[in-house]
TrEMBL record:
Pfam families linked to this entry: SSF
Example of a GO cellular component annotation carried by this entry: plasma membrane
Protein name as annotated: High-affinity choline transporter 1
Localization of this protein: Membrane
Membrane-crossing segments per the record: 33-50, 57-79, 121-146, 167-189, 195-217, 229-250, 270-291
Record family assignment: Belongs to the sodium:solute symporter (SSF) (TC 2.A.21) family.
Recorded GO MF terms: choline:sodium symporter activity
Gene3D superfamilies in UniProt: Sodium/glucose cotransporter
Principal place of residence: membrane
Keywords carried by this UniProt record: Glycoprotein, Ion transport, Membrane, Neurotransmitter biosynthesis, Sodium, Sodium transport, Symport, Transmembrane, Transmembrane helix, Transport
Any one GO biological process: acetylcholine biosynthetic process
Protein topology in the membrane: Multi-pass membrane protein
Length: 381
């Protein structure tokens, strides 16, 4: 808002309303409409699996985005209606001027306007504000990604017994790796908006089906989750990604290729393959979960093959507790509560007797009847 008035109050820019009709684009025909609907569903449902804090922040930031989106739009209109031959803009560094900004430099419209169409002190404030915003977002993103890898992946999955010093060392290495990857992407990708789409794309295809299955389908398990993840990822990668110059392995219907001047071939998938990949992951997750439960529950597969321990070979600490029992209670309190809920007259000592001295009263419905390892001791257990 400080730089926009300064950009308007100079004689190199023409009337902004003379090409206002070009500001509003068109979707196109049937192919473009299917792509637009696919991207619309991607943005709508791709934001649901985000963390609650991120979702709330997005709603609150919506007002700020509306206010802060007006200056970039005005700056773009100013750049569009400016005769850049009257400025010091020298795109080829040989003294040759250009009437408009080159196509490969349109992502630098804001700094170019600040540099050539505003006084130096205004440009200093504008570029400083942009740099501060970019750096604050970049360092927080790098630190959060490295911290998440160190604590959620290294500490919980790879080395549960790792010391705090080791976790900190891994975090420092992850910061370097994430920073290198982020720098590489910043130098090779020209669209920030495209990166935002890509982030929502992966969440929509991979995480959204997982979230729906976990919340609404009680029979979903780890086998379905893993297979659904793999199927969704493969289907998504098969369609390619022009933003990353990643070629398509499968040419879906309405696929078109465009050959650039440098010989690079870019393909556009007008078919809504992202939604197809999401539905494929969702169906695979449900189908595999039901199939694995059926095979283990009916004894078709032995119990030992449940290597993920999520269908029949479930560890005691992962068995769901009663809703009125806290997850933080001790094992003694939990056993006493179970004995009370069962209606039996067991004392605490009798309840904790070894299985061979107790009376078997019920068979588990999820286990084969000929497997003695899965006989329960009490109806309330």
């Amino acid at each position: 808002w400080v730089c926009v008035p300064a950009s308007l109050l100079q004689d190199k820019t023409k009337d902004l309303s003379r090409n206002a009709a070009d500001w509003i684009g068109t979707i196109g025909g049937f192919k473009e409409t299917t792509l637009w609907i696919d991207c619309m569903l991607l943005l709508i449902f791709g934001g649901i699996p985000w963390q609650a804090s991120a979702q709330k922040l997005s709603f609150v930031a919506g007002i700020g985005c509306i206010l802060m989106a007006i200056p970039p739009a005005l700056i773009g209109a100013i750049a569009r209606n400016t005769d850049w031959r009257l400025t010091n803009y020298n795109p080829w560094n040989n003294g040759t001027k250009s009437e408009s900004i080159l196509a490969d430099q349109t992502n630098m419209v804001v700094p170019l306007v600040f540099q050539h169409l505003t006084p130096k002190w205004v440009a200093f404030i504008g570029l400083g504000a942009v740099s501060a915003a970019v750096m604050s977002s970049a360092d927080s993103s790098v630190l959060s990604a490295a911290s998440m890898f160190a604590h959620n992946i290294w500490k919980l999955a790879i080395r549960p017994n790792a010391h705090e010093e080791e976790v900190i060392c891994v975090m420092r290495i992850a910061i370097i790796a994430v920073g290198f990857c982020a720098t590489l992407m910043a130098l090779t990708i020209n669209s920030i908006y495209g990166l935002w789409y890509l982030c929502a794309d992966l969440v929509y295809v991979i995480l959204f089906p997982q979230l729906v299955c976990v919340v609404y389908f009680k029979h979903s398990n780890t086998y379905g989750s893993v297979t659904g993840y793999i199927v969704g990822l493969l289907l998504r990668l098969s369609g390619g990604e022009p933003l990353l110059s990643f070629p398509a392995f499968i040419h879906y219907p309405m696929y078109e290729e465009v050959i650039k001047e440098d010989g690079t071939i870019l393909g556009t998938q007008f078919f809504p393959f992202r939604t197809m990949a999401m539905l494929g992951s969702f169906i695979t997750c449900i189908g595999t979960s039901y199939l694995s439960e059926y095979l283990f529950a009916n004894g078709i597969l032995p119990v030992g093959m449940d290597f993920l321990k999520c269908v029949v070979n479930i560890p005691p600490e992962r068995i769901a507790l009663h809703s009125d029992v806290s997850f933080n209670v001790s094992s003694e309190t939990l056993n006493a509560q179970r004995a009370k809920d069962s209606g039996d007259n067991y004392t605490r000592t009798n309840f904790l007797k070894p299985p061979e001295t107790s009376t078997i009263t019920e068979l588990s419905t999820l286990q084969p009847s000929n497997n003695k390892d899965y006989l329960t001791l009490s109806k309330g257990i």
